[in-house]
Design a protein that fits this description.
alpha+beta; six-stranded antiparallel beta barrel; four-stranded antiparallel sheet; binds zinc ion
């Protein structure tokens, strides 16, 4: 039976460590805990890596974090050859914070990109150095220089980024909040997590389960590395850290 892991990262994306109890170890060696700060791969954002420390001081390296039978079951995948804990043990977990912070900055930058380019989203993938968002956009008519300049305006404006929960009914009454063309937010659980940018979400509001920085200034300097044509109707925008290289 699937277990439900308390997802601490959903309430506080800046929490780096936690104490947790081992609920079980599955037949493939995946570690299930009662609560975790480890984000599980989902919505285009890769899961966390890090370590679990046992009471005797030894550590278990975590190479990946994924969801199990349900989205609420989080599985910590140990590195090959790691010792496995016993159910009932209490562990201290710590994520690789430098990596996670980069992913949070990139993920937030992807939201900003959907503000600058308000087109239906057909795909997205966040990674540490290079992220992409695909739009249903037959002719972009925009340059990477223009998009970069508008992204950096939003970054410099230092808008707050926040989350709040809304009901399925509230979302049904506001269908324009959903920007993704193919992926519908998971409804049916009664509540949906909304990520807002700007006071009251005036810059942007959309359902998202990922981790974000608390203000747009924390994204730091970013640029559009490339706008690629993907088929007749799609444009792929690649986001990178740092200033735009001189061409
Ligand atoms: Zn998000």
């Amino acid at each position: 039976m699937a277990t439900t892991t308390q997802a601490l990262f959903r309430e506080d994306s800046y929490q780096k460590t936690m104490e947790a109890r081992v609920v079980g170890v599955n037949d493939r060696g995946g570690i299930l805990l009662d609560r975790t700060v480890f984000y599980a791969t989902s919505g285009g954002q890769p899961g966390d890596t890090g370590r679990l420390r046992r009471a005797d001081g030894s550590t278990i390296a975590i190479a990946a974090t994924i969801t199990g039978e349900t989205k609420d079951e989080i599985i910590h995948v140990p590195a090959a050859g790691a010792d496995l804990p016993e159910p009932g043990e209490t562990l201290t977990g710590e994520i690789d914070w430098e990596r996670r912070l980069k992913l949070m900055r990139m993920h937030t930058a992807c939201h900003l990109l959907t503000v600058v380019c308000p087109f239906p989203i057909t795909g997205a993938a966040v990674s540490e150095d290079d992220s992409r968002v695909d739009f249903d956009l037959p002719d972009s008519g925009v340059t990477k220089e223009d998009v970069t300049a508008r992204l950096m305006e939003l970054v410099r404006a230092d808008h707050p980024v926040f989350t709040r929960w809304m009901t399925d009914d509230e979302l049904a009454a506001n269908p324009s909040l959903v920007k993704s063309k193919n992926v519908r937010p998971p409804t049916g659980t009664g509540r949906i997590r909304l990520v807002g940018i700007g006071e009251g979400g005036t810059i942007d509001s959309q359902p998202c389960g990922g981790t974000h920085v608390a203000s747009t200034a924390e994204v730091g300097e970013i640029h559009i590395g490339k706008i690629e044509k993907k088929g007749r109707e799609n444009r792929r925008f690649r986001l990178r850290f740092g200033p735009m290289p001189a061409s």
